[in-house]
Design goal:
InterPro entries: Acyl_CoA_acyltransferase, GNAT_dom, N-acetyltransferase
Strand content: 25-35%
Number of helices: 2
Protein name: GNAT family N-acetyltransferase
Pfam families: Acetyltransf_3
CATH architecture: 3-Layer(aba) Sandwich
Keywords: Transferase
CATH topology: Aminopeptidase
Order of helices and strands: HEEEHE
GO molecular function, one term: acyltransferase activity, transferring groups other than amino-acyl groups
Strand order of the largest sheet: 1-2-3-4
Structural class: alpha+beta
Amino acid sequence: MLFQIRYKGDGHDRKQAEIFIDKNTGDDIEEYAVVLNSENKLIGHIVFHEWYAPFKTWEIGWVFNNSYHNKGYATEAAKAVLKYAFEDLKLKIGRIYMTIFLKKKL
């Protein structure tokens, strides 16, 4: 199962966690929770959804707790989601975009 979430101690209150779960269960999941198995802790989420259907364009992005940056977790999650998209769902994707939002000015 690719989806798991906890509401205690992960930055989500109970209501936010319930909304996230309701929105991302079933056949139309766009945001996948990323759980660090060794700690059984939600550390972020990855987004993957169709962005522009005529060109089979999809978007991928992620948000992680700052404590888990630069440890390869986003790369691992992105590889897992893309493998799932191509191998399990057999999606026909023309291109994939990733948008980066920076907190600090360059």
